[in-house]
Fold this sequence. Notes:
Chain A contains four helices and five strands, in the order βαββαββαα. Chain A has 105 residues and is an alpha/beta fold. By secondary structure, chain B is mainly alpha-helical. Chain B is globular. The interface between A and B is medium-sized, with 17 and 23 residues.
Amino acid sequence: MKIVGVTACPTGIAHTYMAQAGLEKECKKRGFTVKIETQGSMGSENELSEQEIREADVVILAVDITIEGQDRFDNKLVLEVNVGKAVTHPEQVIDQAIKLVESNK
Amino acid sequence: MKNFFKDVRKHLLSGVSYMMPMVVAGGVILAISLLSAESTSKGMVPHGEIMQFLNTLGKAGLGMMIPVFAAYIAYSIAGRPGLAPGFLLGFVANNSVIISSREVKTGFLGALVLGLAVGYFVKWMKGIKVSTTIRSIMPILIIPIASVLVIGLAYYFLIGIPISYLMNGITTLMGNLQGGSKYLFAAVIGIFGELDFGGPVTKSVSMFTLALINEGNYFPNGLFRITVAVPPIGILISTIIAKNKYTQEERNDAKAAGILGFFGITEGAIPFAVKDWKTVMPSSIIGCIAGSIIGAIGNVTVPVPHGGLIVLPVVGNKLWFVVAIISGSMVTALMLKLLKKDVVQEELLVEDQKIN
């Protein structure tokens, strides 16, 4: 399973990065390839490349605000959740993402 | 409908996130310029030319915050074409205009409504099917002019006066807080300020106190900015005074949380709240109420939208601010000591083995 995602919270200093860490940790635990872009108060960091997005099975957006470059994911399977969910229950978010992928096979 | 409100919330938070740095820069520089100011009948007058210049810089930041807020709400809804009309209407909301020979200034609330209105209007306009010749002049000519005229006139004829009444009502109410109602208000800020440790509820409280900063009332923000630091610092203290209630890993996490709390970031408390919300949440709320009420006794004011001890240089009634944060944190720590169960011995053993 290949997962990419974007995290973004209003202040862009804490939640954004905690959500990134949560998702990455959970994916690594399950042996998934993962890359999470953060759109915090420093702008976009760890940016997703076109190829990474193309190869991903599913896109997780853990966002409370409107993000830059949403159109990159127009033709992808997208799971959108609140930032808080990815901070407190990343395992549930990944479960949801897997379910989404399986129901679209 | 639920989705619509969820979207609106997202757009408002986007506006706030772009506005934040503007207010921080403006607020801090303004506060610096007033450090050596003389109090005169015309209000605070900065001392010397350079301070006067800093004063201008700071006021520019605060003056820009409202237009930026409106613009990026509209941007979040409609994309790029929303920006210009959002800036323009936000600027109007933040300045006095005459409507039916009454002076109307709607500030933060007006910018919020106008930003949403013009955002959705522009989004609707973008969807209109037009011939290719007109299509090319839509974004450069038709959308900016039509959206500003339509929403601007709606402001004049319909929504301007009611919003200004509402805004004046809130401002007057907040300005006249005294005695019992003042402490009740402080308690409410304490309850909701960090209810979800920096999540949506916190951000709503933050928007409310920001709106009042724009009206020149720094007191509600002062109380809120005390509560920001209380939960994480409280947790840090509790790991020191009640070591047996935490695992080694938690004690390390608490140090990081405490440092975050010092910098006015509550989120460090989240991992603790997630693991054991039944004890962490009530402890945090009671500590926040205590801190907020002590802040109210000392009339603490904070002119910038950030909290924790890091903003101390610009705080009004500094000593009370520090006392409020420390006492609130102590209350949280003692509550935690009281409520939390000891860590089960086995877990400790396993950890000891790991360490060895």
